[in-house]
Fold this sequence. Notes:
It contains 1 helix and 7 strands, in the order H-E-E-E-E-E-E-E. It is mostly beta strands and 110 residues long. A 3-stranded antiparallel sheet has the order 1-2-7, with no helix packed on it. It has a two-stranded antiparallel ribbon with strand order 3-4. The protein has a two-stranded antiparallel ribbon with strand order 5-6. It starts with a helix and ends with a strand. The model has no long low-confidence stretch (mean pLDDT 90).
Amino acid sequence: LNAFIHCNAKIIEGKENCLWECGTCTLLGAMLVELQSSQYAWGLVIASVGDCKAFHFSLRNNTLVDITRGSRMESILDATDCGGRLGPYVDGKPDLRNLDTFFHSCEEGD
Length: 110
């Protein structure tokens, strides 16, 4: 989550007195971690804000799963609303309505 704070600070850097000149962006960060005591060898840890998507393809089952399913439920019918964003939104603060974390188990080769 520190990366989200850093990115937001960089977006507004030098524009603190004129935030309307700043842009906004969505962000998804993921980290694959080796699991010590689990039936799965790997775990995918994700943090996301906005309408970014993450998918998992299981090589063994030949299936595709939307890991971030449900992350836009509040704005699902409005394509112009990404559900959240970094950068100034309301009162110069980021829009964190759908900031969320996800975890998905993975196997070798996925």
